[in-house]
Amino acid sequence: MSALLSFSRGVDRVTTFVGRGVSWLVLLVVLVSAGNAVIRKLFDVSSNAWLELQWYLFGAIFMLAAAWTLLKNEHIRVDIVSNILSKRTRDWIDFLGHILALLPFTGLMIWLLTPYVLQSFNRGEYSPNAGGLILWPAKALLLAGFILLFLQGLSELIKRGAILFGGMEDTTPMASSHAEPVELAALAPDRPEGGTEPPPLDDDARNGGSGAIR
């Protein structure tokens, strides 16, 4: 188990490094988009290369940051269902979901995309648009994104298995923020509106009201 956890930590470090680096592409996308719009409006000049660069960068952000999103536990969940489940039930859902859905899907995409990218690279494929960019780097981003997501899925599977079967503490961000508030609220005593503690009972009230009528 220690070897698997070491592998998981290594994958997490790579995912974090790539995700933080890719996050800066958001600024670059904004600058490219704004610059292209300004030049087109002011000088009536445009280029397919600049337009395609925008979706190249957007694709890079989406694909390469997907694994980081999974690591940070920021992927989409059905919160209305997740909120009513216990922590252990959610762990089991994640564990089985990685085995039955995430890893098979990403593995299939890697298998399908590898010849697709190699064929594009060998042909030196370019955009069919006039002045467009070379295409194989954009296709390679798809493959790189699914490889990272597959590795991060393995990392999450290892960590979830260690939590379920090895008693490891869950350090996943937001790990205990879904069901615990609901569970604690259900166990807490009723309080008056405003969140204040109920007033203490007097002696008569403690005795069942026997002193209310003399």
UniProtKB/TrEMBL annotation:
Pfam families for the chain: DctQ
Region (Disordered): 177-214
Membrane topology summary: Multi-pass membrane protein
Subcellular location field: Cell inner membrane
Record's keyword annotation contains Cytoplasm: no
Tripartite ATP-independent periplasmic transporters DctQ component domain ranges (all copies): 30-159
One Gene Ontology CC term in the entry: plasma membrane
Transmembrane segments: 21-43, 55-71, 92-113, 133-151
A GO molecular-function annotation: transmembrane transporter activity
Domain of life: Bacteria
Keyword Transport in record: yes
InterPro entries: DctQ, TRAP_DctQ
Keyword list, A-Z: Cell inner membrane, Cell membrane, Membrane, Transmembrane, Transmembrane helix, Transport
Function description: Part of the tripartite ATP-independent periplasmic (TRAP) transport system.
Oligomer and partners: The complex comprises the extracytoplasmic solute receptor protein and the two transmembrane proteins.
Family the entry assigns: Belongs to the TRAP transporter small permease family.
Name of this chain's protein: TRAP transporter small permease protein
